[in-house]
Amino acid sequence: NKHTFVMIKPDGVERGDVGNIISRFENKGLELQNMKLMHISRDLAKKHYQEHKEKPFFNELIDYITSGPVIVMIWEGENAISAVRFLMGATDPQKAEPGSIRGDMALSITKNIVHGSDSEESAQREINLFFK
Ligand code: GTP
Ligand code: MG
Predict the structure, then answer these.
(1) What is the three-class DSSP state of 64?
(2) Section 74-95 average pLDDT
(3) What is the CA radius of gyration of the chain?
(4) How far is the CA of 56 from the centre of ligand 1 (A)?
(5) Which residues are responsible for catalysis (predicted)?
(6) pTM score, two decimals?
(7) Residue ID of nearest Cα to ligand 1 atom 10
(8) Which of 3, 48, 52, 115 is flagged as catalytic?
(9) Calpha distance 77→6 (Å, rounded)
(10) Measured in angstroms, how far is the CA atom of residue 115 from the centroid of ligand 1?
(11) 132 labelled as ligand-binding?
């Protein structure tokens, strides 16, 4: 549990929040291992969010995540997965604590500006999906 996968979603990139988000992870003591800007295909987006394919919000989620370039990153550190999830805050920015990325910087559950892996298995799967 030393590595996790993070994505800055399209509105985070478009609004110019990349530096701010990266700073928060750096300030926490996490170390950036790899990073790239990419425009993800619908096919890759569907693979990334495969666990949600039966959900009512799936199409909206895929439309959003493919709507513009994203930043994908690998971060390393002690308990990196839970550290990143804690810094991100709750999925719904309306419920995320002030001080968290979503609590401070987002308004909508769809446009919640950042993704972080939720388990060791998904971290491994997502790193392979985006960096291999
Ligand atoms: P990710 O880091 O993006 O995976 O978010 P998460 O792990 O906090 O939440 P989850 O994996 O459960 O959901 C994936 C994404 O689907 C979320 O980031 C939301 O954008 C979206 N989502 C989740 N639940 C809902 C919902 O109830 N309604 C809508 N409209 N979108 C949702
Ligand atoms: Mg998730």
Answers:
(1) helix
(2) 98
(3) 14
(4) 11
(5) 115 (pros-phosphohistidine intermediate)
(6) 0.97
(7) 91
(8) 115
(9) 13
(10) 9
(11) no
